[in-house]
Amino acid sequence: MQRIKSSAQTAKIKVRAARIADVPALTELYRELHLDDYSYRPPKPAEMLKAYRAIAKNPDHQILVAEAHGKVAGTLHVMIFRHLGHGLKPVAVVENVVVSSAMRSKGVGELMMEAADRIARRNRCYKMSLTTNLKRPRAHQFYERLGWRRTHHGYSMDLKS
């Protein structure tokens, strides 16, 4: 992964593990991630807290937040799993990458992705992967600028209950 250049702007951004007090901010960020999805309904606060607590107990899951000026400005979720097809080497999957609209193009996403890269390397992952919606060309440019390559053709399927 390419490293970004330090700047006064990114020096004010801190990437850290999410805490339970961040759950309301995470809910707001996930809402931004789904702005064009009219069927999205954010979970109730108690549901989010319960889910966060369950994820936080799992050492193979890490939710990170970027904090700028004392406020949560972005988040991502890194999941590590053992891959049976590659000599049991672990893989890192990055999900739910979102930066608040007010903080985009200010280095927040880059710093979070660097933190995800460190987690993957610390866990001796042989690769890191993510998916991004086809409707988000700016996100595609962002990932490519950081050195990510399109290597697979992905599919998804709605599993409405």
Walkthrough of the structure:
- The protein has 5 helices and 5 strands; from the N terminus they run H-E-H-H-E-E-E-H-E-H.
- It has a 5-stranded mixed β-sheet with strand order 1-2-3-4-5, sandwiched between helices.
- The mean pLDDT is 89.
- Helices cover 32% and strands 24% of the residues.
- The protein has helices spanning 8-11, 23-33, 45-57, 108-122, 137-145; strands at residues 13-17, 61-68, 71-82, 90-99, 127-130.
- The protein has one domain: Gcn5-related N-acetyltransferase (GNAT) (Aminopeptidase).
- By secondary structure, it is α+β, with helices and mostly antiparallel strands.
In summary, what is this structure?
With 161 residues, the chain is α+β, with helices and mostly antiparallel strands. Helices cover 32% and strands 24% of the residues.
List the helices and strands and how they pair.
Layout: H1 8-11, E1 13-17, H2 23-33, H3 45-57, E2 61-68, E3 71-82, E4 90-99, H4 108-122, E5 127-130, H5 137-145
Parallel strand pairs: 4-5
Antiparallel strand pairs: 1-2, 2-3, 3-4
How is the CATH topology named? Aminopeptidase
Helix count, DSSP H or I runs of 4 or more residues: 5
Principal-axes shape call? globular
Report the span from N to C terminus.
39 Å
| Averaged pLDDT | 89
The CATH superfamily turns out to be: Gcn5-related N-acetyltransferase (GNAT)
Structural class label: alpha+beta
Tally of separate domains: 1
Poorly predicted ranges: none
CATH class: Alpha Beta
Task: Record the strand order, biggest sheet.
Answer: 1-2-3-4-5
